[in-house]
């Protein structure tokens, strides 16, 4: 059940990334700096949502490391991209949320690599 829930959450994050990209392109009204922040947030959302869906679909093969990887992507996207979007839209920094989110995204990749290398019986 958890793999299906993670797949759904990450797929919805992908949909949100597309919507955020459209918003930034057509209605955002950002200056150049804020537009750059917004585009970075959208890029990271889409890229990590896609890999997160792939990871969640392979959890039966990856096991616990796959679950942890997918969870790292879920929370990493929210922290990193979410804080950039808040900053671009309101000028409000969320402090350490972006670096913590970015660290979770990196951890998601490391856990994926570890899961790929672990031998399964």
Structure report:
With 121 residues, this protein is mainly alpha-helical. It has one domain (2-117). 85% of the residues lie in helices and 0% in strands. The chain has five helices and no strands. The protein has helices spanning 2-26, 32-57, 59-62, 64-90, 97-117. Helix 2 packs antiparallel against helix 4 (64-90) and helix 4 packs antiparallel against helix 5 (97-117). It is elongated, with a radius of gyration of 15 Å. The two termini are 22 Å apart.
Number of helices: 5
Major β-sheet, in short?
A: none
Return the structural class: mainly alpha
- What is the ordering of alpha helices and beta strands? HHHHH
Based on CA atoms alone, the radius of gyration comes out at 15 Å
Q: Overall 3D geometry?
A: elongated
Helix content: over 70%
* Count of strand segments: 0
Mean pLDDT across every amino acid position: 95
Query: For the terminal residues, how far apart are their CA atoms?
Result: 22 Å
Low-pLDDT runs: none
The number of domains: 1
């Amino acid at each position: 059940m958890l793999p299906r829930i993670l797949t759904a959450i990450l797929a919805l994050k992908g949909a949100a990334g597309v919507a955020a990209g459209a918003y930034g392109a057509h209605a955002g009204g950002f200056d150049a700096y804020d537009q750059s922040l917004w585009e970075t947030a959208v890029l990271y959302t889409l890229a990590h949502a896609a890999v997160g869906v792939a990871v969640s679909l392979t959890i039966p093969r990856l096991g616990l490391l796959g679950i942890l990887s997918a969870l790292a992507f879920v929370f990493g996207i929210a922290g990193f991209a979410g804080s950039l979007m808040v900053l671009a839209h309101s000028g409000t920094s969320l402090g350490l949320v972006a670096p913590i989110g970015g660290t979770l995204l990196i951890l998601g990749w490391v856990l994926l690599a570890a899961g790929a290398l672990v031998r399964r019986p």
